[in-house]
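Deliverable D2.4 — example input (structure tokens):
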């Protein structure tokens, strides 16, 4: 385990100064994605809406149309949190390649600075700057592409659940709605 940690830390160090923000971006993005996935996992939107319909029909005694409207508003409030998480994850996924590009520019500047100071006779200076540029670009893309795919699929899942119809069933506990 310690060897793996040293390998990762060496990789981060080789990528330059943009790697720590890239890793934080990656962690934040996957946190948002996993939380949104957990929001969508336990119950579907139609089951949630149907449960709210039944609960309001039993507790409030209003008409079924008013109960359905209220349940719809509450279900939408719950889903708004999931939408915000997916939007935030998309922002992090969009920022990752830009941070990688910033690392590319930084690595190329270091390469040209090394060439200006030591000339073309120092391949180590040239190769370290180019390596930094490529590592940060690669990391930005490796963070962004799977994140954007996950956000897309979770948004589609959320959208499908929003379109699912819901019916009003009997009250929890056995009684019927008034």
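Example output (designed residues):
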């Amino acid at each position: 385990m310690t060897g793996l940690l040293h390998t990762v830390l060496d990789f981060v160090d080789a990528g330059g100064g943009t790697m720590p923000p890239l890793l934080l971006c990656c962690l934040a993005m996957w946190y948002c994605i996993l939380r949104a996935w957990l929001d969508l996992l336990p119950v579907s939107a139609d089951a949630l809406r149907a449960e709210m319909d039944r609960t309001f029909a039993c507790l409030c005694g209003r008409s079924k149309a008013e109960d359905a409207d209220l349940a719809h508003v509450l279900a939408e409030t719950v889903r708004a949190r999931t939408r915000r998480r997916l939007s935030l994850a998309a922002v992090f996924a969009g920022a990752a390649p830009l941070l990688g590009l910033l690392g590319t520019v930084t690595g190329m500047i270091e390469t040209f600075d090394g060439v200006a100071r030591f000339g073309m006779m120092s391949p180590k200076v040239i190769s370290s700057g180019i390596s930094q540029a490529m590592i940060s670009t690669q990391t930005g893309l490796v963070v962004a592409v799977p994140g954007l795919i996950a956000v897309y699929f979770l948004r589609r899942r959320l959208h499908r659940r929003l379109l699912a119809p819901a019916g009003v069933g009997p009250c929890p506990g056995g009684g019927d709605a008034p």
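The helical segments are 2-15, 19-40, 45-60, 64-118, 123-163.
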